[in-house]
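Write out the bound-state structure for zinc ion.
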Amino acid sequence: MLSAKCRHLSITLTLQLQTMYFCRIVYLCVLFLNSFIFVPIPVFAEDFPKPSHEMLQQVARLKAKELILIDYHIHLRGGMTAEKAFDWERQSGIKSGVLENTGKDWPLSDNEKLAAFIENAQQFPLLIGIQVNDRDWYKTTDRKLLAKLDYILADTMIMNDETGKPQKLWLENQYEIQDIPVWLERYWRHCQTVVNEPITILANPTYLPPRVEQYYDTFWTEERMSQFLDAGIKNGVAFEIQSPSKFPKRAFIKLALKKGAKLTIGRNNHNDHREELKRSLDLLEELNITTNNLLILPRQPLR
Ligand SMILES: [Zn+2]
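---
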């Protein structure tokens, strides 16, 4: 009787141990696979910004039309982090693409800094890009690093002067415009240069600095807009509807839609505050923009 009890106990213990070992092996296998497949998902802080009810309703209306929403223009600056961008994606239903400025006088001024930026951002399952500001970026940036990125974004807001010195066109007290038609002609050539670079997104298209903004309609003629869009389409470049900007105006977006150009939305943030992308989302709704009109990029499977 006692021996039968001992044998029963021994069998039970053996089974329990076998189950433990099996569970442990399964657990170790999961851990091993997890290190290849999954990105660690952190616990989110409670005080990250929350989207408003109105925004969530607008996103729901757009998603009912099967729109895939991606904000490709989230700078990791001013307190914005990859973790916050990912939390916002989770809450708002708008995917996040994070980037930072590259170039000689910019935060990512060399390949080492760019590598560290990618390393940091890739802790989260986000699209990762860069904003390029020097016109020779594709010659100076490490190709292996470029291959790790999901997209390259550029705008036309920095133009070299006659001596080759970059001018930030929004800092109007730092440069002269002697002859407006001549300057506009030079700016037009600059726009054509940027749209023909190996970029993915042209941000803030048809931008003009405040000093010459009054010439918008005479400068951005249908012929110029058409030529600009055709160059982008041929080069595989999408055009951004940036939320805090007044550019591009509706005529450009309508022509872009007519020509089949791809569009994107973006916030171009300077901090980590709530950004509801109001103008971008309003235009998507008002102009009946569909997913076919939008640039939908997948994430790099391996970086
Ligand atoms: Zn930007």
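---
Residues 26-32, 34-38 have pLDDT under 50 and may be disordered.
The pocket of zinc ion is lined by residues 73, 75, 131, 268 (CB under 6 Å).
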